[in-house]
Amino acid sequence: MKKKLNLGVLSTLGSTIGGANTKVVIGNSTYCTKRGSSWLMSVALNQYMTERDLNLVHGYIDHESGHIRFTEWSAIADSFAKGESVRHMTNVLEDIRIEGLIGKRYKGSAMNLHRMVSTLCEDESFWSIPTQGMGLNSLVNSFFLFGGRYHLLSQVAMKERADLAFSILKSRVSKELYFKFGECFLQLSNLTSTAGALKLAIEVLALIDEAKEEQQQQQQQQQQQQQQQQQQQNDDEEGESDGQDSGNTDDTDDTDDTDSDAGNAGDTDGEDGDDEADGQAGGNAGGDDSDEDGDESSDQSNQAGENQSDVDGGNAQDQQTQGGGQSSNSRSEYDPERDWMWFDENGEEVIPKDICDGIAEAIDNRFNATFDPTEGDPFQESMTMKRDIARFACLYEVDNKAVQAAQTSLKKWCLSHSNRKTTPRTAGGKLNGRRLARLPAGNLRVFEHTLSTRTPSAAVQIMLDTSGSMYPTTHYGAGTACASLVKALQGLKDFSVSVIQFNDDCTLVHDWETKGVLGNLAMPCGGTETGPACYAAMGNLANRKEDTKLVFILTDGDGDLRQVIPKAKEYGIKVCAVRFGGGAIELIGLEPELQPYCEDMNRLPEMFTSVLQTVMDRS
């Protein structure tokens, strides 16, 4: 049975590891991209992915956060310009450098990266074990990738792969060249910049070219030696054949004389046989038994000969097989049948995968493998959320009465959940940490000490409908409500607010860390996909640490939430709405008291008070 994913663990995702300009969201694909001055990381998760899958997710986030903090992207662009081999080798070296830095700064990141590598090394689906017959490019990449992670990052799961890569490379190249590879490996431990990683990658690729030339020279020398040996063998065979021909000429006369005498003797025997033929007819009866005995003994003799031949042949074949196996083992201590893992179907070398692209692909594969299409999944059905935060304010005016109404309702909710505990205490009982001796009881004063619990916090994800049905007038009311609600929540200490505008697409227009008024919004257009947009909003709420998580929808009521509401309750997320427009259409699946209809903008403060008090008081 697959273990369900608890979204509570996602609050530990390292969105702060990469810095204030880094955002982690949950979607249906895994990638890391830069949008403007900010970075967006999306991880593919569904409710059936296990803790083992989360090891890959946590490691991927910490790895990409290391790139965001420490990688020089101009040097990466230069590596792309120099070709795929340079780019890949630079990325391998840079991965080791930035993981070492992020692991020193955050111990939890080092632990996540170790768990990720341990998960990847459980089998050979991601990184194959090095073999003697692998290509030189893949061997050198394995030398730095596996060796660097084991020796420099202390990722012990890489030990077997690192040891094999070192020993195989040592046997494949000369001592001088292996020493040069070792010097480059020592430089890897002293890298201080991405430009240094690019320079080292170019040096390593130059050494690979030297190693290839060295192998070609060795192959040419071996071919010349084989040709010389073959020529010498042919000369020896010709000399032996000339000697045999002269010997056969001398023996020809003797052989002819012997054959002539044998022929005469055969004629004499033939005449005697004719004379005896008549006498054999009478002895057939007595001769049958002897013939049967003779045939039986002949058959036994033939069977014994065949059995002996089979045994000898089998032994010879076993010895030959054993000898061949010993020869193979003497050539390589590894299984040559595994070499195919390092070549594709076209015979090209397979280079070990790097973390950035390889882990993203592995997470997406696990996501697709664990998705159950028979159930609605809040992450599989979510939209891919874009990010477009404008620097200038939107055109919608703020309703100050609605702002005050929202703040009053939320403050009352906070007070109702802030408990006070009063306890009597005695003054004079201690002085500077020492209890006073012989202090008259009359000098002690009793007073009350009040201790307040922490004020509850909340994260509110506003969803503004900007579909075509909101045009031409309905969007004004919804936009005013959105701008007013943003201002109200930003004025409260323990509340965070984010805004997503949606139609048949989904765009983040106001992030949790964004300060000031609501930015410019797009004009209404397109269809209405309320359900998938709600799933995207739930993903944006998943890694928040506030006590209460709320999705607040501002729409004309066109949407089906029958699958959204149960999933939201399962993950502790509350959903409410305020409806606008002349149609008074209700959201399917949401209770009527949680989606009041605002037919008059003068009643907007009343709508905020009603829906916020209702939804926040629910457990």
UniProtKB/TrEMBL annotation:
* Stretches for region Disordered: 217-335
Residue ranges under compositional bias (Acidic residues)? 234-260, 268-278, 288-298
Which Pfam families does its entry note? CobT, VWA
Biological process, per Gene Ontology: cobalamin biosynthetic process
Matching InterPro entries: CobT, VWF_A, vWFA_dom_sf
Give me the stretches of Low complexity compositional bias.
Answer: 217-233
Q: Which SUPFAM superfamilies match?
A: vWA-like
Q: Where is the VWFA domain?
A: 457-616
Transmembrane annotation, as ranges: none
Q: Which superkingdom is the protein from?
A: Bacteria
Specify the protein name.
Answer: VWA domain-containing protein
